[in-house]
Batch of 2 targets.
Target 1
Amino acid sequence: MSGHRLFERPALRPQVRIEAGDAGATLRYLGDRRWLELDFLHGGDAEQRFLKLLQEGGRSAADLAEVFPGTADELDELLAALDEQGMLTESATASAEGLSGVAAYGRLKRNADAVRARLHSPFVQALAAGEVTRDQLIGYAVEYWHITHLCPRALAPVLARDDISPTAWAKTMAFYQMERNHDRLLEKSLQAVGVSREVLRRVQPLPATMALMAALGVYAYEFPAALFATLFPMEEPEPEFLELFVRRCEELGLPGEFTGPIVAHSGVNEDEDHEAVTLELLAELPFVGLEEVRECAAAVTDILEQRARLDGEIIAWYGRASLRDLTAGSYPSAAGKALTCVSSASSA
Amino acid sequence: MNEQHGDGRIVPERPLLLAEHRRVGDAIELRTATETFDVEPAEGLTVEQLAAVLGRLDGGTPLTEIAARTEVPEGTLRDVLVPAQVAGLLDEGAPAVGRHPLAVLADVEHVLNELMEELIFDGPFWQAVVRRPESLPPSVFHGFGLENWFFLFHENEFDSAILALPQNAGLRTLANEFYQEEHKHDDIVVRAFSCLGITKDDLLRSRPLPTTTALIRMLSWWARTDPLFFMATIGVLEGRLNSEGDAENAAYDSFLEACGKADLDPEFVEPLRMHAKINAAHDHGSVSRELFSRLPGLDAATEARLIGKAHLFVEAYAAFFNGILDYYGDPARPLLRPAYEGDGR
């Protein structure tokens, strides 16, 4: 066993009792269940001084070697023997650097702002230019439906986690409950343009939509902090986009029953303050290691880039084909080719 | 100001404002490299007070002091800062406090050490194996081997759940190495049963004791829902099972010694010894320490959670051993319990 070498500053546990005599000492732990006898081969004073320092802690094995009456190998053997009896602990207090969840949020938010500043959305550009077609607007709503429909499934795994604080769990549960029926709003929209729920259940999402929801789902399974971190880029209100969207829908004669629920859903997110959910959840983490914060930042950036790709995919696919009911009929290869060749320039 | 943020814990304790500010009429202008915000004082605050607050957001002054110096109640102050925090305009000047991960693990180990003695080594199974192995029917020893085989056979169920660990590359590497080293250990132990006329196929058609499945499923659940706690258990599961032996011997040395005293067939004992030696050569008893040494600091709530669950884990582990004596202590019982009962249809 070499586990004792992993201690930065090995020390005797406070529960270890030292019984020193003239010729040696007995160290006892857990009553009389674990014990170790040491012979004093160097007169006793040096050994007792060493044991006192080991009891105090705060010293590395190298520091201890300087006061140990014996060779470095002998010290290593002694520490191994003590550890074998469970008598050693770690007395170092300093740990790797980290941030509070509150501070981590600030970093992630500023990172997201910087990423957003270099991204552009082909969909928003086409909306502003008045070039978006009816099918592309409906396609946008279909993808939005996929997101709201998959959302509970993506979130649910985090509710099984038992390593987030009770408050974080309660907030996540509340968020899950709020998101549960949001797909119904989008179904109302799509019903108004002849797309039924039955059809929606058959259609496949675009790859970027699936990638977004898969990311959230996987984080929910195995990386709760990244799930918390990636909620705000998914939930931030986009009033300027919404205005362009509604105007284009009106230009193309799409009914108010189509745009109404989409606007309402955006309003729900704003009213329920979904944007701040990331901050509230991360604030529940008193200490997050720097590597973990960095991985969360990468996750946030990826979500933003996937969203930009999704906007490109909506233009590419729904500009050439309609609903993605891929279980029947022939596959529109031209649309598929355009879709899979969407430039990542918008996310570069 | 949103009332949902009333607890105010979402703002830094020593806020640092990442924007320049200047008074413009009855408002304050906040300017970053890319954005400008116009901020009006919240109800009950003067623009002078708001300016005074902003002027003290230097990353060194605690909120309590800012509140005292500006005569803005702390609750109001926190509420005032929330929009700036949401917008990413604040940084935290106070250091985050995390305890050394090995110090936390050492405290968990103390609980494990204590309960291992009281519940496991003082329990009926280990007392019988260590104190009176000659009096036990061979079926108890065979049962120990069989239930250990079930445990090893299902080990991928829990070990695999920590292979991804996206937040820590060092931890991920170690977990994968451990997984590889453990792979097929059940095939080593299965050889022990050939002298009993039990084949791998027989084992696949049988099922473990409920005390064994309880341990397996709990570990699998923890590996998925609290991987840190699961990692804290590996050192115990892979370590030595002997409170009195010397450090030179491998894991299970008490058991192997008892097998000698009870005159068990070496063909049964040797594969178990081989498995123990392989684990010892890989120093698997130190795996929890190695994993924890790669972690950043841990907070107090995490430590409390690990300590609490450590008790539950040892209870399940003790029941695993005692369940062996309880069932296999009666030599009239079949060594293998079939997956199907009745006619199997």
Note: Chain B touches chain A through 65 residues (CB under 8 Å).
Target 2
Amino acid sequence: MSILLVAKKDFQDAIRSLTLVAVVGIFTAFLAFYTYYEFTMTPLTTTTAFDLYQSTANAVVVIGTLLGYKSIAGERESGSLKFLLGAPHTRRDVVLGKFLGRVAVVVVTVVIGFVVVSPHYVMLAASPSVTAYVGLIGRLLVPGVVFVAVALALSAASRSTTVAMWGAIVLAIVFAFAWDMVRNVIESFMLPPDAGIPNWFRLITRFNPKYFYLDAQTLELGNAAPFYLEPWFGGVIVAGWLLIPLGLAYLLFERSDLA
Amino acid sequence: MNRRHLAVLAVVIAVPLFTIGLISPVPDYGPQLETSVYHQPDGNLNEETPTVAYRNLSTDAQQLFDKANNNGPNSAAVPIDDAPTSWATLVSETAETNERYVRKNGKIYGVYLTWDVPAPSFGTVMLRLGPLLGAIGLGTLAGFLILEDSS
């Protein structure tokens, strides 16, 4: 119950500080522009809702990270953390409550953005699909939630918001942009051109929470795929990305001095 | 006028803007055959280079040739579906350019065929995207005003 109280307070703080409105506005404008771009300026291929995933996932990663990095470090720096822990909340409640509060902001942002842009999508897509559109929203929420957890761990580990901010920026750059560049370099220059992509390389790709869904079915590999490319392993990867940062955040925060 | 009234005003402007953005026509960005015609001075061509007599071109091809030749930039573009079949089939998304030589009135012209997808103009893009982004901006402003008013 205490966790939900902290989460509710955190979500209300986001509304009061106008963070939620600003993030929703920026995300929706980006999504409207990107939907227009994908569906009208790349006319040579048939565009589907899922073609919106790549860049939108990068935006969601950045949003999740930016929302998470200040969650604990910000309150510690302003001194309000002492008041929060003065109420009957344990440190575990604060970590989980903060996590749920920030996740709620990510979910509301993504859902409002997609709902506002949905008529735009229906008008532009050759064959609009509600299932594909809703599936895209669900898939996008995963990296958003994961990066809230990762940024929260950084926030719990840092004594200042500056350190947490730089850590969050580096993380967002690595997972939203650099990972794809390194992957492309390895694929282009280090893998034999005619040998096909090895499964270990697919696993490395899949370790990025943005690509958790890349399983044997999506990649059309048939039944010969190893266990780590089966759909359920995507759940293991996401669970790892959630539990390890949240566990670390709790341990670091539990042992840290508030002063 | 208090903040709540301003928020209502922002929403009242945002709704028709959003609708205008949605119903604005989506321009057709279909591929085109761009034809450029240049006079080839004598001696520039190898004798074995195949040329086609102007009179042997189809009527469509003759019209496109003349249009390009008479245009200021010496080029003309038509949608690939409306282009002369004999020329349209020479280019594609993967083979974007081709070259032919046409003989007319004793002169030889190089005809450069290019498969091209025109980039939409800024005005065309903003006709649809401008009202949409404006509506989203006004909606965000309304949200700010309402939250500031209630706090």
Note: Chain B is about 45% helix and 25% strand.
